[in-house]
Amino acid sequence: MANEYIRFAEGESLPYSDLVVVEDRFLFLSGLVSEDLQTGELVCGSVTEETNQVLSNLKTILEQYGSDMKHVVRVDVLLRDFSERDEMNTAYVRHFTEDRLPARLCYGNVGLADNCKIEIAVIATKK
Predict the structure, then answer these.
(1) Is the pTM of this model over 0.85?
(2) Which residues of 96-118 are buried (b: 16+ CB within 10 A; e: fewer)?
(3) d(Cα 108, Cα 2) in Å, to the nearest integer?
(4) Which DSSP state fits 15?
């Protein structure tokens, strides 16, 4: 079975795929920032607001490709300011059920594109 390499914005010449679907079962999603999926504009605010926006986007994308938040198995979180980790965690856990928390790695003090406060990449399985 062939892998599917997906770019969300047509015509962009970025050096990566936004999503790779492996064997029609595993979803590897590149880093998401706090972009409004309807307008393409960044939603800048507190780390809580940006975390909620990113995870809301993630939920929408996963559902579009046959998955959901319960099927996320791995999360990589990149924070511009690691001192905001506790605030991010408070928002983050609200998007997952306690019995299905994915494995996670959190990096801090990272320079992110467009001065975003958070970027999140995930691996999920289809339902």
Answers:
(1) yes
(2) beeeeeeeeebeeeeeeeeebbb
(3) 35
(4) S
Strands laid side by side in the 26-32 sheet = 4-6, 19-22, 26-32, 118-125, 72-79, 103-107
**Cβ atoms 104, 77 nearer than 8 A:** yes
Closest CA to 62 of 23, 98, 13, 18: 18
- Residue-wise pLDDT for 59-99, tens only, equals 999 999 999 999 999 999 999 999 999 999 999 999 999 99
Nearest to 31 by CA among 127, 111, 99, 126: 111
CB 74 within 8 A of CB 102: yes
